[in-house]
Design a protein that fits this description.
By secondary structure, this protein is of the alpha/beta class. It has two domains: 4-91 and 179-209, D-Maltodextrin-Binding Protein, domain 2 (3-Layer(aba) Sandwich); 93-178, D-Maltodextrin-Binding Protein, domain 2. Helices cover 30% and strands 30% of the residues. The chain is built from eight helices and eleven strands. The strands form two sheets. Strands 2-3-1-4-11-5 form a six-stranded mixed beta sheet. Bound molecules: phosphoribosyl ATP (PRT) and magnesium ion. Residues 11-13, 51-53, 70, 72-73, 91, 93, 156-163, 178 line the site of phosphoribosyl ATP.
């Protein structure tokens, strides 16, 4: 019997992923609770519930055949070792630059200080403009950095814009649109092709376009 392991991102992506999987008839068997490996209503399919940033690694190494994670995570990780066949259209947001509403224009002499958890994406964005910036790596609460003088701007995800607004920040540039993607291990795509393709087709039938 061919088995399939699908790595899901816990947190907000999971909340959007489970309804999508339910639409194609794939459901966790019982409560997920604290379980990290969850059986499903299909005896040959199991789910792994892991941090979004770990999904590319699990899929790359074949610990999972397929996985769902954010495009932000994939771009930051570098996606060449994985197939990315499907935009799931869920957990949509955008990666943007934001600054204090009342910030004076940057003098252009001192290097711009950018706080972000997306070092690679940020480096690439400014490099493409020929601008060298000083990057400060944060793991969360990026919105705080400009308020306390830690950085001039932040590069972070924005959805409704409410978090920026609540902290007196404004979005000055959209770097890229983000949504969750299905990724597939390269070897699994060959050795388990029929099964992988079958689930991809089913998913592709229920994703909302646009
Ligand atoms: O668990 P771990 O710490 O490793 O991961 P995490 O905390 O990043 O997980 P989680 O559950 O927050 O999910 C993150 C993933 O969800 C991201 O990688 C994106 O692909 C996706 N996503 C979609 C978002 C948002 N929308 C989003 N709005 N991730 C984060 N946000 C945050 C944003 O960082 C900001 O703080 O929400 C705030 C902005 O929201 P608005 O609506 O106020 O603009
Ligand atoms: Mg978190």
């Amino acid at each position: 019997m061919t088995t399939l392991t699908i790595a899901l991102s816990k947190g907000r992506i999971l909340e959007d992923s489970l309804p999508l999987l339910a639409k194609i008839g794939l459901k966790p068997a019982g409560d997920i609770g604290r379980l990290l490996r969850v059986p499903t209503n299909h005896p040959n399919i199991s789910l792994l519930i892991i941090r979004p940033a770990d999904v590319p690694t699990f899929v790359e190494y074949g610990a999972a055949d397929m996985g769902i994670t954010g495009k932000d995570v994939l771009m930051e990780h570098g996606g060449e070792a994985l197939y990315e066949p499907l935009d799931l259209g869920i957990a949509r947001c955008r990666l943007s630059i934001a600054q204090k509403k009342d910030a004076p224009p940057h003098d252009g002499i001192r290097r711009l200080r950018v706080a972000t958890k997306y070092l690679e994406l940020t480096r690439r964005h400014y490099a493409a403009k020929g601008q060298q910036v000083e990057m400060i790596k944060l793991y969360g609460s990026m919105e705080l950095a400009p308020l306390v003088g830690l950085a001039d701007v932040i590069v972070d995800l924005v959805d409704t814009g409410n978090t920026l607004k609540a902290n007196g920040l404004i979005e000055t540039e959209i770097i890229t649109q983000i949504s969750a993607r299905m990724v597939v291990n390269k070897a699994s795509m060959k050795t388990k092709h029929a099964m992988v393709q079958d689930w991809l087709d089913r998913l592709s039938g229920v994703v909302e376009r646009g």
